[in-house]
Write a structure and sequence with these properties.
Helix content of chain A: 25-40%
Radius of gyration of chain C: 24 Å
Strand order of the largest sheet of chain A: 13-17-12-16-14-15
Largest interface: A-C, 55 and 55 residues
CATH topology of the largest domain in chain C: MetI-like fold
Largest sheet of chain C: 2 strands, antiparallel
Number of helices of chain C: 13
Order of helices and strands of chain C: HHHHEEHHHHHHHHH
Largest sheet of chain A: 6 strands, mixed
Number of helices of chain A: 18
GO molecular function (chain B): ATP binding
Shape of chain A: globular
CATH architecture of the largest domain in chain C: Orthogonal Bundle
Number of strands of chain C: 2
Oligomer: heterotrimer
Helix content of chain C: over 70%
Strand content of chain C: under 5%
Strand content of chain A: 15-25%
Distance between the termini of chain C: 7 Å
Chains: A alpha+beta, B alpha/beta, C mainly alpha
Keywords (chain B): ATP-binding, Cell membrane, Membrane, Nucleotide-binding, Transport
Structural class of chain C: mainly alpha
Main location (chain B): membrane
Organism (chain B): Streptomyces noboritoensis
Membrane topology (chain B): Peripheral membrane protein
Number of domains of chain C: 2
């Protein structure tokens, strides 16, 4: 009897659903939006489903949570991209397809920063008519305060990077706006009037316009700042404001009427509403994308491994994918202070002998990345294409490698250790492939794995540990905080980045020539010359042979048919540009 | 009692008419067979039992556990529900045959025309309901009355069976009663609809001796008052000694002796009955002299011994000639001198009389 | 009765204290045994850019610079009297019951817990209703038709149900009804107060997935219980009274057979309220279980403590309720 009731219930439910589906169908017919014809990888070079039609709801979801949606408390690439919807920054990246997307353009500022001749003083002038969502005008002091709170208050906002802190004069002394209540704030940021802001740096820093793109320059009104809980009541300066925010679950953005499109050529602001859900099961996110229930996976790192085969093998789905560069390179650091890699010929033996094709296959094949020959990935400003160790089919050149081994004094090969992060399956798989491909040269690499959480701090990046345990080969991967050669290279090849407490220069490369080249280039305000320098420096590292680039990492992004104005932005780790994106739903 | 000495119809034969020999009996059972299919084989729990009871009379059914006495009574009540139970024969209650009747019709008779008292009132009453509620339920299922009326009736019945403060105890739970009180309550529940047949299945076994007597007195009193026929099932001849009008002794699913109580008591015709009498406690006997138990254990109901089922335990099994006790099953035969006194034994009547008078009776 | 409840409540408080102390010790003492310093513990809550200054600031702000007993005392005290924290320009007051702030994102734990309890409760209550009704019904039918085709069929399904983990049935259900046959447009938690119909509609698949597992279990339990009770003497008595079979089964058989079910149900439900971890993960429902997993993953002590205490509280509460209900069902049980 009770089961019969249950049957009735289910039957009713099914009937209701069919009804609901029918309604949806008719709505779709009316809207009459035609799915854009597009091929795989179309959004890498153009805007797919191009649209200037306003309206609809864009639905974002992701399997993780953001570190914070507070523009002043985040390090996540996708939040940098996403937060531009509600937080305007001094400068930002041009919302455009292809290489164009790497261009820095003014946002709050009238123009890009005006550097002093020594590139140590940067001045920005704010546009007129900028307002917060409550109608109060945005002033340079709000920008200054945002930088102060985001860089100098780690007791409350510890997630974000601290580049401003390390470059500003007196950055190591200032205690931050929460401890030091003096409204004057840090002296090295000057706000002579409400529209001017001047940053005074202790070193020359020609990439400062890139720092100004950081969400940390999105203005925050001092009297609305609640520290760690500001995230629950973010005051918008962009085209959208928060209608709701549920910690760890979801947020909804609606149009901000105080935003003036005339001050903002960068944001088409297509959807009327943007909703984002966190902690949605990864496979569910993928399924919802395929079923066109979602507009985009906010994380922007591509479909999950379970979904990948389904997407690649189905031609219909395949046409909706974009294999974008994630802005990161996987490579092996050969530690120049661990024998026998203190000898350049032993390093070169590895460079020549390694079978990169097999490593690419181990990492998941072409969808996961292209074989790399440089440290800088192609999606970074300053990337220059070259290959000093070119071998047929990237399979390695045994003869050349053996020749180098002889010159190194190790004609019969040698034994060493190869480290990898135990909780990163693809890195472990790559390490195994590296090990196999070196066997042919009689180089016996013993794999040692460590947890990712402490990898650089305690193990592979800690010189003492590395020397004590003779860790010659260190698997690692690196992506830049901003897409220039300096942003990418400084932390991994500059001698200054070797830290006793653990750092990312795992090769312990400390070549005065390279250090100087880096420092000279970053002081150079000539953009063209600067960008050329990055490629040259990359080549110097290749000549030094202490880093073996393996693959340029790629994401397999999926764009549902309802997503409009879709393009990959190289500025944000190869995810879709959220400023442009709209939805036909 | 009339002649019941027929061995009965074949299993499953349709029954149409009330047996002619049933006379004025309120309940007539004819050749009742209750067999159970089990994984080990066919268990013949009851294998051809017949008897009659007149209104107001008491029949005692006596036997060891496993002799089929309880199964017989449940068969009369129509309480064998298992699909594995095969029931045949006839049960006539007040002119109606029950074995072939509509089960729902039989259900309506249960509790109203025939009621039953069980052995262990603690397990036989539902632990979660008050005594009153259980009596009320028994009453209302056969009488369309309000709960209030039924409750009054329950209190009245509790009072009648001798429960002090019935108005209070009606709301008590079975576990709050003493053993004797519980059995009284059980009797109250059984009699609440004035049944014309009351089956008491070992009603006093779980009780101590003084309470036993009270309960038996109570049943006897109530029987007089209500005029019901009573079947008293027991393994203890002492229990039925004073109450029963007729006695039926069962062994291995069959009746081995049946007759008027005084006959069976004073001139028992079966060695098994002798054994039962021997194990009967008597106050006028010395401790050492009494209690001659029946040696051995009850027979398997799947592989009943061939010939006389009692033969493995019978001290006289070798007396009849040609090993007949082990090959031929003895018929239930009327003893020549006594009207309605039957027994199933291969020994000659002379031998039995001699053994009884010379060997058994003096020891009792 | 009142004395009994008071005594049980006191026991519960002691239990919760022990649970909290153990959780606290696991968090602080185990890493210490593994040779971790307080600085390293604090470094977990600093972002990617964990420089020494930031670590020191975080360490101080989280109170890691104080002795352990001081920290524990502070944690317990704040539950009753609240506390003041400083995660911004102004001190923020955390009113009692205060479970502190997340180490990871400085969000107050108690409002998060109260926000998530309804999610888990919604999940548990619906599933419980479904599994109780279907499980008991199937169990009764199977017991009464023991050995029949229906019995074998149901019991085979029940075996499957008991054997199949929720992440399988949940994923399968979700895959079938949101992708293969998209009857559901994705499954998301909707607050009951926002839209009861949407609430139930979105919960239907999770309910059924969860209920499938449990109803299988309950069907088997009910069947075994019914088989046992239907052989009891009082069932024979009930039949001897001339009661209809329906009454015999329902009022006499099932009533007694349900008693152990109530006990197990109480415990299952308590555990489920403490966090339907896997179900919430599969369906991305922001309930307690989800919160617990996050807390553990982030090594977020206040979150773990909060969830543990709430879960323990519900388990203790459900056990107490079971005992009370048990006493109500079975008059032989005396609470003392």
């Amino acid at each position: 009897m009770k089961t019969r009731k249950a049957t009735v219930l289910i039957a009713t439910a099914v009937a209701l659903t069919l009804g609901a589906t029918a309604c949806n169908d008719s709505k779709d017919d009316k809207s009459g939006s035609k799915p854009g014809k597009s091929a795989a990888d179309a959004a890498l070079t153009q805007i797919v489903n191009k649209s200037d039609k306003k309206g609809g709801t864009a639905t974002y979801a992701m399997s993780d949570v953001p570190d914070s949606l507070d523009p002043g408390n985040t390090y996540y690439g996708w939040v940098q991209n996403f937060s531009r919807l509600y937080g305007r920054t001094l400068t930002t990246f041009k919302p455009a397809a292809g290489k164009d997307g790497l261009t820095v353009v003014p946002d709050l500022a009238e123009s890009l920063g005006k550097p002093s001749a020594d590139a140590k003083t940067w001045t920005y002038t704010l546009k007129k008519g900028l307002k917060f969502e409550d109608g109060t005008p945005i002033t340079s002091k709000d920008v200054k305060y945002a930088v102060e709170r985001s860089n100098f208050a780690p007791e409350a906002l510890s997630n974000g990077p601290t580049y401003f802190k390390s470059h500003l004069i007196g950055g190591d002394k200032y205690e931050g706006p929460y401890k030091n209540k003096d409204p004057k704030g840090i002296e090295s940021i000057e706000t002579p009037d409400d529209t001017t802001i001047v940053f005074k740096l202790k070193d020359a820093f020609a990439d400062f316009d890139y720092l100004a793109t950081f969400s940390q320059t999105a203005p925050v009104p001092r009297d609305k700042d609640k520290g760690a809980t500001y995230v629950q009541h973010i005051v918008s300066s962009g085209p959208y404001k928060f209608e709701s925010y549920e910690e760890g679950k979801s947020a909804t953005l609606v149009r901000n009427p105080q935003w003036d499109a005339k001050t903002d050529p960068n944001r088409p602001a297509l959807p009327d509403k943007i909703s984002i859900r966190f902690k949605v099961n990864a496979v569910t996110v993928d399924n919802d994308l395929l079923a066109d229930n979602l507009t985009v996976d906010a994380a922007g790192t591509g479909v999950s491994p379970q979904t990948q085969p389904k997407v690649i093998t189905n031609p219909k789905y395949k046409a909706q994918t974009d294999g974008s560069y994630a802005g990161a390179t996987s490579y092996i650091g050969l530690n120049v202070n661990v024998a026998p890699f203190d000898n350049i010929h032993c390093r070169k033996a590895v460079q020549w002998g390694i079978d990169k094709a097999s490593i690419q296959a181990a990492a998941g094949g072409a969808p996961k990345g292209d074989v790399a020959s440089t440290l800088l990935p192609p999606s970074v400003n300053g990337y220059a294409k070259f290959n000093l160790y070119e071998t047929p089919g990237d399979k390695g050149d045994e003869a050349k490698a053996k020749d180098e081994l002889k010159q190194c004094g190790q004609p019969n090969g040698f034994s060493t250790s190869l480290t990898a992060r135990s909780d990163r399956p693809s890195e472990m798989a790559m390490a195994t492939a590296v090990q196999a491909s070196l066997k042919k040269l009689n180089i016996n690499a013993e794999i040692k794995s460590f947890p990712a959480g402490k990898y650089f701090q305690n193990f592979a990046g800690n010189p003492q540990y590395v020397h004590d345990h003779k860790l010659g080969m260190i698997m690692t991967a690196w992506g830049a905080d901003w897409p220039t050669g300096f942003g990418f290279l400084d932390q991994i090849i500059n001698g200054a980045a070797i830290k006793p407490s653990g750092g990312n220069n795992v090769q312990e490369l400390n070549d005065p020539a390279i250090n100087k080249a880096l420092n000279d280039a970053i002081a150079n305000t000539d953009k063209t010359a600067r960008e050329k320098a990055w490629g040259d420096i990359d080549k110097m590292v290749a000549e030094n042979a202490s880093a073996v680039p393996l693959i340029y990492r790629k994401n397999l992004l999926f764009r549902p048919t309802s997503a409009t104005n879709v393009t990959v932005t190289q500025a944000y780790l190869g995810m879709y540009d959220y400023l442009l994106m709209g939805s036909s739903k | 009692m009339s002649d019941l000495n027929k061995t009965g119809a074949a299993v499953g034969e349709p029954v149409a008419e009330r047996p002619a020999d049933a006379g004025e009996a309120f309940l007539s059972v004819r050749d009742l067979r209750i067999h159970f299919n089990t994984d080990d084989g066919l268990v013949k729990s009851v294998d051809g039992v017949s008897f009659d009871i007149k209104p107001g009379q008491t029949l005692g059914i006596v036997g060891e556990s496993g002799s089929g006495k309880s199964v017989t009574s449940l068969g009369v009540m129509g309480l064998h529900r298992s699909a594995n139970a095969k029931i045949s024969g006839e049960v006539w209650l007040d002119g109606e045959e029950l074995i072939g009747a509509d089960p729902d019709h039989v259900r309506r008779l249960r509790g109203r025309k025939m009621a039953m008292i069980f052995q262990d009132p603690l397990s036989a009453m539902h632990p979660y309901y008050t005594v009153g509620a259980q009596i009320v339920e028994a009453y209302r299922v056969h009488n369309e009355v309000s709960k209030k009326v039924a409750r009054t009736r329950a209190i009245e019945m509790l009072d009648r069976v001798g429960i002090p403060e019935p108005g209070k105890r009606v709301d008590a739970y079975p576990h709050e009663f003493s053993g004797g009180m519980r059995q009284r309550a059980m009797i109250a529940m059984a009699l609440v609809n004035n049944p014309e047949l009351l089956i008491a299945d070992e009603p006093t076994t779980a009780l101590d001796v003084t309470v036993q007597a009270q309960i038996l007195d109570l049943i006897r009193d109530l029987q007089k008052e209500f005029g019901s026929a009573v079947i008293m099932i027991t393994h203890d001849l002492g229990v039925v000694a004073e109450m029963a009008d007729d006695l039926l002794v069962m062994y291995g699913g069959r009746c081995i002796e049946r007759g008027p109580a005084e006959k069976v008591f004073y001139e028992p015709q079966h060695p098994y009955t002798w054994g039962l009498l021997g194990s009967m406690p008597r106050i006028d006997r010395e401790e050492t002299d009494r209690l001659i138990p029946v040696k051995g254990s009850p027979p398997s109901l799947i592989n009943v011994p061939s010939g006389c089922a009692f033969n493995p335990r019978c001290p006289y099994a070798d007396l009849p000639k040609d090993n007949v006790t082990r090959t031929v099953r003895p018929e239930l035969k009327q003893w020549d001198d006594a009207e309605g006194h039957f027994s199933a034994c291969h020994m000659s009547q002379e031998e039995r009389t001699r053994i009884w008078t010379e060997e058994i009776a003096p020891k009792l | 009765m009142a004395a009994y409840i008071i005594r049980r409540a006191f026991g519960a408080v002691v239990l919760l204290l022990i649970v909290s102390a153990v959780t606290f010790a696991i968090y602080f003492l185990v890493p210490r045994l593994a040779g971790q310093t307080m600085d390293q513990l604090a470094a977990q809550y600093v972002g990617k850019d964990a420089n020494a200054g930031a670590i020191a600031a975080v360490k101080k702000n989280l109170g890691f610079d104080q002795p352990l007993y001081e920290q524990y005392w502070h944690f317990i005290k704040q539950i009753f009297v609240g506390a003041t924290y400083k995660f911004g320009p102004d001190a923020s007051v955390c009113n009692a019951p205060c479970f502190g702030y997340s180490f990871k994102n400085h969000v107050e734990v108690w409002p998060q817990l109260t926000e998530r309890i309804p999610v888990t409760f919604s999940l548990a209550i619906g599933a419980a209703v479904i599994w109780l009704i279907s499980g008991v019904a199937i169990g009764v039918v199977s017991a009464l038709k023991r050995g029949s085709f229906m019995d074998r069929f149901f019991m085979a399904i029940a075996l499957a149900g008991v054997s199949l983990p929720i992440f399988f049935t949940g994923m399968l259900g979700q895959g079938l009804f949101t992708v293969q046959w998209p009857i559901w447009n994705g499954v998301h938690y909707v607050n009951f107060t926002d839209n009861p119909a949407d609430w139930a509609w979105n919960l239907l698949i999770p309910w059924c997935s969860l209920a499938f597992l449990y109803s299988a279990l309950y069907a088997r339990l009910t069947r075994a219980g019914m088989l046992e009770t239907m052989g009891e003497d009082y069932i024979r008595t009930a039949r001897a009274k001339g009661l209809r079979e329906r009454t015999v089964i329902g009022r006499h058989g099932l009533r007694a057979a349900l008693t152990p079910i109530v006990t197990i149900f109480g415990m299952d439900f308590g555990l489920l309220i403490g966090g339907a971890v896997i179900t919430e993960q599969v369906f991305s429902f922001p309930g307690l279980g989800f919160y617990a997993v996050d807390g553990v993953r982030n090594n977020d002590l206040p979150v773990v403590m909060g969830v543990t205490l709430v879960a323990a509280f519900f388990i203790v509460l459900c056990n107490l309720l079971v005992d009370l209900v048990y006493a109500a069902i079975d008059p032989r049980v005396r609470l003392s």
